[in-house]
Design goal:
- The chain is of the alpha/beta class and 536 residues long.
- The protein has a domain at 363-534: 3-Layer(aba) Sandwich (Rossmann fold).
- It is 49% helix and 8% strand.
- It has 25 helices and eleven strands.
- The protein has helices spanning 2-7, 38-48, 59-90, 98-107, 114-122, 124-127, 131-142, 149-158, 163-172, 181-188, 198-208, 221-233, 238-248, 263-270, 275-280, 282-287, 296-305, 308-313, 318-330, 344-356, 391-405, 429-437, 448-456, 478-489, 525-534; strands spanning 25-26, 32-35, 175-176, 179-180, 368-373, 409-414, 418-419, 462-467, 494-499, 505-506, 515-519.
- It has a six-stranded mixed β-sheet.
- The radius of gyration is 26 Å and the shape is globular.
- The two termini are 40 Å apart.
């Protein structure tokens, strides 16, 4: 009898085998997990992307798998896919727009029906808000389909926005991915609403340029920006360059390279610098001396980073802030030889901005076990293609959002064994990143957090496992460990699986209402987790 129990048990099954009677599938590591449905896969792709691949799947393989899932969703309910793309994009839920733009391009092809194609083209200005986004879309769609009338009309309508906006896009985002505004205007044959209008002059300048900028600025605001851009190319002194920036609100991209080592030029740019540009240029602002201990520039930067409403309006994603904090605090880039002396006040401001970017999450009062998968597969790829930002590091940052909100929590780490980890939201994130990055790693056993809690007598209402779900090492599946915990403690504990890679697996049983699969580094995730913890 014993051997039969050992060979067939729904309560204790090695992770290298499926639970009898379940719908588990082989994962990429040789273990068994549940496959997520295509709609979950769509969300993971839109938010996490597939750049860099994963430990078990190349970037190409992971991208193809996700693209196939997007196509299946388009065929099942194309308008729903387009709505989801727009929702994720407009809410700023993803670190990068590339996956959403790629999926939107797919929705304009013959893989989708006519209704879906019309919806996708109508959504173009909502998803492709900047010139760079539009160039990405053009590159994607050019590899998928021809340039028919509907597509050309949609691009022409993108350029029908107010002339001031078109001018700003043309000056700030000049070309990318082998495409320029000149290319797209020639392709789409955009027509201005009225002849000799500001749009007409803008289109003419974009396509043919000006032989020589007029001596005095035009009266139309849109053309004044173009005039200042052309004059900046010929600026003969720092004072002239600074005056053009201040009077015409020129963005950094409109400033010739030779002036970008001047502190006065950066001081003028800082007065009207968008939040995303500010976060990207902190190292340069420090290197040229504008940001320094107790300087006015530092005070301005710290005030802007502390403005939660401005962060929200700019759609600054936590990943961007975490990447900026990680790079700025270490005093050198991930690539190149540039160095700077980090200013502690700026590091602290970035730390605060990271927490603020998730919005106001309310505490539940529940008891939380936050379990970080630090196995080898979590150290391989990068989240959203950010160099050095592995799923292991990103999961620690995600866990601290809950830890900073909830009064009752403990943070644990595991691989093929439990690993001591001493991190707290009272630490600065750059310290947490270093501590997490230096942990040992091994195989993956996602059952360990529940087994550890049972063994140690830890009373928990919610287990949150941050993982890629490539579990294979344990003698019992995670869901079996959770059910043992429920039975022996009498606590109806819940399991939240925070997926940190855009693969097709989860350790959460989709048939168990006490388990939830969410996407890591979705800005909506902390609130969703809180709601699930409170639900009966």
């Amino acid at each position: 009898m014993t051997y039969l129990n050992n060979l067939f048990s729904t309560k204790t099954t090695p992770q290298s085998e499926p639970i009898p009677g379940s719908t588990q599938v082989p994962n990429s590591a040789g273990g068994y997990s549940w496959g997520v449905d295509d709609w979950t896969r769509l969300d993971r792709f839109l938010i996490l992307g597939s750049e860099g691949g994963s430990y078990y799947a190349s970037e190409r393989a992971l991208t193809l798998e996700n693209a196939e899932a997007v196509v299946r969703c388009l065929q099942a309910d194309g308008p729903r896919v387009v709505r989801r793309i727009v929702e994720v994009s407009e809410a700023g839920r993803a670190p990068k727009t590339d996956p959403a733009i790629f999926a939107l391009a797919l929705a304009t092809t013959e893989r989708a029906n006519a209704e879906t194609r019309r919806a996708a083209l109508a959504a173009l200005p909502r998803v492709c808000r900047t010139g760079t986004h539009l160039f990405h879309f053009a590159a994607y769609v050019d590899g998928m389909r021809g340039w028919g009338r509907g597509l050309r009309t949609a691009v022409a309508e993108w350029y029908a926005r107010p002339a001031e906006q078109v001018a700003y896009q043309a000056v700030k985002y000049q070309s990318r991915d082998g495409w320029s505004h000149r290319d797209l205007l020639r392709l789409c044959h955009a027509k201005p609403a009225a002849p000799e209008s500001a749009h007409q002059e803008l289109y003419r300048w974009i396509v043919k340029g000006w032989d020589e900028a007029p001596e005095t600025a035009p009266t139309e605001e849109a053309l004044r920006l173009v005039w200042a851009f052309e004059r900046a190319k010929r600026a003969e002194s720092r004072a002239e360059m600074v005056r053009l920036i201040r009077e015409h609100r020129l963005p950094r991209e409109a400033v010739p390279t030779q002036w970008l080592t001047e502190a006065e030029v950066w001081e003028a740019l800082l007065e009207d610098m968008p939040m995303t540009a500010l976060v990207r240029n902190l190292a340069t602002l420090t290197r040229v001396g504008l940001v320094a201990p107790l300087s006015a520039g530092t005070a301005r930067v710290v005030a802007q980073l502390g403005d939660a409403e401005r962060l929200r309006r700019a759609r600054v994603h936590p990943i961007g802030l975490l990447a900026a904090l990680k790079t700025y605090a270490q005093g050198h880039g991930e690539r190149g030889r540039s160095t700077w002396q980090p200013v502690p006040a700026v590091v602290d401001a970035l730390d605060g901005a990271f927490y603020a970017s998730f919005g106001n999450v309310q505490p539940t009062g529940k008891r939380w076990v936050l379990a970080l998968d630090v196995s080898g597969s979590m150290t391989w790829s990068s989240v959203a293609g950010v160099p050095g930002l592995t799923p292991r590091v990103a999961s620690a940052a995600m866990a601290l959002i809950t830890a900073a909100t909830e009064p009752h929590y403990t943070v644990t780490a595991f691989c093929d064994r439990m690993v001591r980890i001493g991190i707290s939201p009272r630490q600065r994130l750059d310290d947490v990143v270093r501590a997490t990055d230096g942990l040992p790693f091994g195989g993956t056993d996602c059952a360990l957090p529940m087994l550890w809690a049972l063994e140690q007598g830890v009373e928990a209402d919610v287990f949150v496992v941050y993982t890629d779900s490539e579990t294979w090492h344990g003698k019992i599946h995670p869901v079996q460990a959770l059910r043992q915990y429920r039975e022996r403690t009498g606590i109806a504990a819940k399991l939240i699986v925070c997926g940190m890679v855009a693969n097709g697996f989860t350790i959460a049983d989709p048939a168990d209402r006490g388990m939830l699969d969410v996407v890591g580094f979705d800005t909506a995730t902390p609130a969703v987790m809180s709601d699930f913890a409170l639900a009966e």
